[in-house]
Design goal:
- The protein is an alpha/beta fold and 349 residues long.
- It folds into two domains: 59 residues, Orthogonal Bundle (DNA polymerase, domain 1), CATH 1.10.150; 260 residues, TIM Barrel.
- The chain is 33% helix and 19% strand.
- The chain contains eleven helices and 14 strands.
- A hairpin with a 2-residue loop joins strand 5 and strand 6.
- The C terminus is likely disordered.
- The structure holds iron/sulfur cluster (SF4).
- The site of iron/sulfur cluster (SF4) has 12 residues, from loops.
C-alpha cells in the first residue's frame, strides 16, 4: 500500500502538479507531460505513458488515479436532441448534467453541487436541499463523460446545473483553470459561463481574483419583496448590494454580464416589471436573457403565454435594454433550466 492515499489526478491544479514534481526532484516539464497524458482519451494508467521514465511511471501510479469519464447510470434524450445524463458519484450520490445541441452549437450544462442550499422556489434542485460540494475531479468527470457520450467537444460549457457554483468556488476555480490549460482541454474563457443566484461572498472573491470565465446572474425579480419570496438568498444579500457588487465586477473585468430572468406567470411578467428591470440594469453593462419557466411537477408556478413573453421582451427593448429570449431545450425530459433534481439522491442503503 502506498504511504499516501491515492489522489485523483484531476483534483490537482497545474500549479499543484508542478510543485509536486519539484518536490520529487523532477523538472516542471514533467507536470506538463503528465497532464497531457491524463487528458488523452483512453489513458487509464501512467504505466501506459512511454514518454515518461519507468521509475516515474511507477511512482505516479502509486500516487495517482486517472479517474475515468463518468458513465451515465441513466440517459434520456429529448426529441430536440437534448440529452440528460444521470451520473453516480463514488459515494452513490447522483447528479445530472445536460448536453444541449442547437444548430451547429453544443452546450454542456454541468452541476457544481449535489443539491443546493439556496431554496429558490421555482427550482427542482432546491427540493433536494444541500448535500455536498463536488470536487474538481467530479466536475472533470461530468465534462469528460458528456464528451464521451456525444463524441465531440462542446462549443460552450455552462455551470448552471445543480447547485450554486460560487458556493463551491475552490473546486470551480480549479476546474476552469484546469480545462483552460494548454495541456488539458486548452479551453477558452469566453466559452465558459458561471451562473450565480447572487452569492455575494463568491462574487466579491471573483472580483478580487477573476476566473477565466464569463458571468451570468440569475435575477428573476425586480423588487426585494418579490425576489426574497422566490429566491430566499435575497434576504441575506438584497438587490442593491448584489447590483453594486456586479457593477464592481463588470468594471474590474471590463466585461458585460448576462442577466437571466426566469418568467413566471403572474409573478414577475408584467410590463411594469420589464420597465423596472430595464431601469435597474441601466448602469450595469449587461444583456438580459429571458427564460420562460419550465413546468416542474409539484412546484406551484406556471409558464407565461408566448404572447406575454413577447410583450415583456418588447417592453425591455423599448426601454433600451438588450434582451434575448432563450429557447427552452430539453423541457420534455426535465433537463431544462431549473428542472434538474434527483428524487433518489441520498446514499443508497
Ligand atoms: S436555481 Fe440554482 S441557486 Fe437556486 S436553488 Fe436551484 S440550483 Fe440552487
Amino acid at each position: 500500500m502506498s504511504a499516501n492515499p491515492v489522489q485523483d489526478i484531476f483534483n490537482y491544479s497545474p500549479r499543484q502538479l508542478t510543485g509536486l514534481m519539484q518536490s520529487w526532484g523532477e523538472t516542471p516539464f514533467r507536470a506538463k507531460q503528465i497532464m497531457a497524458a491524463a487528458w488523452t482519451p483512453g489513458t487509464s494508467l501512467f504505466s501506459q505513458v512511454s514518454m515518461l521514465p519507468l521509475a516515474l511511471r511507477k511512482k505516479l501510479d502509486d500516487f495517482f488515479l486517472i479517474s475515468k469519464p463518468f458513465m451515465p447510470k441513466n440517459l434520456v434524450t429529448s426529441t430536440d436532441g437534448t440529452s440528460k445524463a444521470l451520473f453516480e458519484l463514488s459515494d452513490k450520490l447522483q447528479i445530472e448534467s445536460v448536453a444541449i445541441p442547437f444548430r451547429n452549437r453544443l452546450t454542456f450544462c454541468l452541476s457544481s453541487q449535489v443539491g443546493c442550499s439556496l431554496g429558490c422556489r421555482f427550482c427542482a434542485t432546491a427540493r433536494m436541499g444541500f448535500i455536498r460540494n463536488l470536487t474538481t475531479a467530479e466536475l472533470v468527470g461530468q465534462l469528460r463523460g458528456l464528451i464521451a457520450l456525444v463524441k465531440r467537444l462542446p462549443t460552450s460549457i455552462v455551470l448552471m446545473g445543480m447547485g450554486e457554483p460560487l458556493q463551491n468556488l475552490d473546486s470551480v476555480r480549479s476546474f476552469v483553470e484546469l480545462i483552460h490549460h494548454p495541456q488539458a482541454l486548452n479551453w477558452s474563457a469566453n466559452k465558459t459561463t458561471i451562473s450565480t443566484s447572487g452569492w455575494l461572498p463568491g462574487l466579491e472573491a471573483i472580483t478580487q481574483n477573476p476566473l477565466p470565465a464569463k458571468l451570468a446572474f440569475s435575477l428573476n425579480a425586480v423588487t426585494d419583496g418579490m425576489r426574497s419570496q422566490i429566491m430566499p438568498v435575497n434576504r441575506r444579500y438584497p438587490l442593491a448590494d448584489i447590483l453594486a457588487a456586479l457593477k464592481k465586477y463588470a468594471q474590474a473585468k471590463q466585461e458585460s454580464i448576462t442577466v437571466e430572468y426566469v418568467l413566471l406567470k403572474g409573478v414577475n411578467d408584467r410590463p411594469e416589471d420589464a420597465r423596472i428591470l430595464a431601469r435597474l440594469l441601466k448602469s450595469l453593462p449587461s444583456k438580459i436573457n429571458l427564460i420562460p419557466w419550465n413546468e416542474v411537477a409539484g412546484i406551484p408556478f406556471h409558464s407565461p403565454s408566448a404572447e406575454i413573453v413577447q410583450q415583456f421582451k418588447t417592453e425591455l427593448l423599448k426601454q433600451g435594454a438588450l434582451a434575448t429570449l432563450r429557447l427552452s431545450r430539453g423541457a420534455a425530459i426535465g433537463a431544462a433550466c431549473g428542472q434538474l433534481a434527483r428524487q433518489h439522491h441520498r446514499r443508497a442503503a
